[in-house]
Amino acid sequence: MANRANHRVLLGCGLLCAAALLCARTIVPSVAETPARNPAISNPVTANPVASSPATSAPATPDLSIVGTVAAPNFPVASDARLAGDGKQTRFILDLDRPIQFRAFALADPYRVVVDIPQVSFKLAAGTGTAGRGLVKAFRYGLVMPGGSRIVFDLTGPAKVAKSYVLEAANGQPPRLVLELEEVDRTAFVQLLAPENRPELRPAIADANAAVGPVEASAKPTQAPDTRPLIVIDPGHGGIDNGTQAHGEMEKNLVLGFGLALRDRIEKSGKYRVVMTRTDDTFIPLNDRVKVARTLSAALFVSIHADALPKREGDAQGATIYTLSDKASDAEAERLAEAENKSDAIGGVNLTDEPTEVADILIDLAQRETKTFSNRFARLLMAEMKTTVRMHKHPLKSAGFRVLKAPDVPSVLVELGYVSNKGDLQLLVSENWRNKTVASMTQAIDAFFAKRLATAGADK
Ligand SMILES: [Zn+2]
Asked: What separation in Å is there between the alpha carbon of 339 and the centre of ligand 1?
């Protein structure tokens, strides 16, 4: 048995929440230098430098350690990850360049184990985690917030974290994070889900409130409050959730680059306020995206995505605009909504703990007006986009997207195209195409608000 003194057994770190990780400056020395946490009221002066490094210039090899300008060399480096064992007991080992703190917990439905760690620079071989072993079907890793990374294991069935510890460097071996999983039955698994084992992934809301505060505070007291319509732009996925990918391009990067370009274009007119749900490579849970829109009483919510078709399902191309519906308009819309709604499971969010208030809300009379506005904007968007942008053969669809479920904020989700289609992918990484698309979307936004404001004026 290994020397106990060599172990930094951290089983008792259940209280160590992600926030504590953020505060641990000895672990994350450069956290103070990281750009302001999103979502942020956009400001050209303080705009995240990500804006000037479009996705088109992103390296072909995914490097999750690159987060805007936060690719500081100070983060611990993970150099190798491997699985050992069988379907009864499976061991995970992560090689590091220094010991780190961590918190491990299990989640149900689907069965997952989540390990929260300080922000780590993952220098792992491409494809690491795609092949499972024993109790682990697959695993993924990445940022969940500035200063915080996460590893999510998809399990083949219920399992418990029997042991978890960090070993210091010894006998020529680097420091290692070790996780030992053991098969248990469903009953035992559910009992292990202690209430304190909840992932603390609510930064978006706190920051949404914080974002409003400083902006109002910085305004001169004599100035009237900013009544310009507030538009929320929601680049899909982020951090640990890459979204669709093909030929080295990841949806999360493409849609972030597009979202930032759209923000800049909309802000130029001076007619609107814009808030992004994320301005960097960070994971944001779906409900938090909705809550940003609701908390800030947004006048419009636009979620940006890029689709992909599995090879066996043929080819498809063009942009599609989706609105919320309790019944999908066709099988493809249903498949897509299901895929997009999986984001939280991918990111390690405790789905059983998600409030159902918004998530399960039915499209009822109370939402009728919102639905009317959402549909009106979707039609305006299609009319503008089809003059400059290649559209899908059925460009207006609807399905049960969780991110569109704010009952009081007109919301649409735009799939810019298919990364699985060669022509679309060429467009998606083209700055010229992005400029044209951003311009037509801005036109649609203008048309939408021109009509809304005119109607509001008529009511007076
Ligand atoms: Zn997506």
From this structure: 8
User: Is the residue at 46 inside a domain?
Assistant: no
CB neighbour class for 131 (10 Å; exposed up to 12, middle 13-18, buried from 19)? exposed
> Ligand 1 centre and the CA of 449: distance in Å?
26
Neighbour tally for 327: CB within 10 Å? 10
pLDDT in tens, 241-256: 999 998 889 999 999 9
Percent of the chain with pLDDT over 90: 59
Q: What is the CATH number of the domain that holds 427?
A: 3.40.630.40
CA 325 to centroid of ligand 1, rounded, Å: 17
Q: Is residue 196 located within the same domain as residue 226?
A: no
Q: Which residues, at least 6 apart from 115, have a Cβ–Cβ distance to it below 8 Å?
A: 102, 103, 104, 150, 151, 152, 153, 164, 177, 179
Reported pTM: 0.71
The residue count for the chain: 460
In angstroms, what is the span from residue 18 Cα to ligand 1's centroid? 25
